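Re: that chain you flagged

S.,

Sorry for the slow reply, it's been a week of failed gels. I finally had a moment to sit down with the sequence you sent. For the record, here it is as I used it:
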Amino acid sequence: MSVLPLVFTSGWASGINAYAVVLLLGVMGRTGATDHVPVSLQRTDVLVVAGLLFLCEAVADKIPYVDTVWDVVHTVVRPVAGGVVAALLAGHAGSLSHLAAGAIGGSAALAAHLVKAGTRMAVNTSPEPVSNIVLSTAEDLTVAALVVFALFHPLAAALVAALLLAAGATTVVLLFSRVRRFLRRRRERRAARRPGGTVPGTPAAG
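Prediction finished late last night. Pasting the structure tokens below so you have them in one place:
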């Protein structure tokens, strides 16, 4: 069977939470639950580092504004992780070239990351923190469920991942006005913190 569906799903999941993907794949392979996971992802040092970083993300991802800063930092990390994981999966299966798999996994991760970051910007326009916690928890559970599902039913999982990506992109487009408001408020806060700075739209003191 082609590894392409698994590559796409792992890429999408990496765009949401790359550390969870590495940790889950490694644990599933290490416990013998599946033979689709390359040995390099099952190494103890890889699992320990992925686990620690997953815990960091689990906290940062649930705090308003901190989650957006975390997303900015991971704009490069998640697509790279998605590409690397995809290339490793393809190399293990031998049915897809490393380069093609890396491109597919990295592109899917980047698209999912942009959707995630855009959604968080919109959610951060709300003053209460509960929505961040609920959304982050839902993302983590979805990633875990879909990655495990993809190991046994890759085609169905890839279809679900594609639908989630499309739905997320549509949501971001619909919430675009809230995202713009979030960015404008960030610019205003940065301007107000500068020495002698004034908030855009307000007259400077004479």
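What I noticed first: The two ends are 72 Å apart (CA to CA).

Talk soon,
D.
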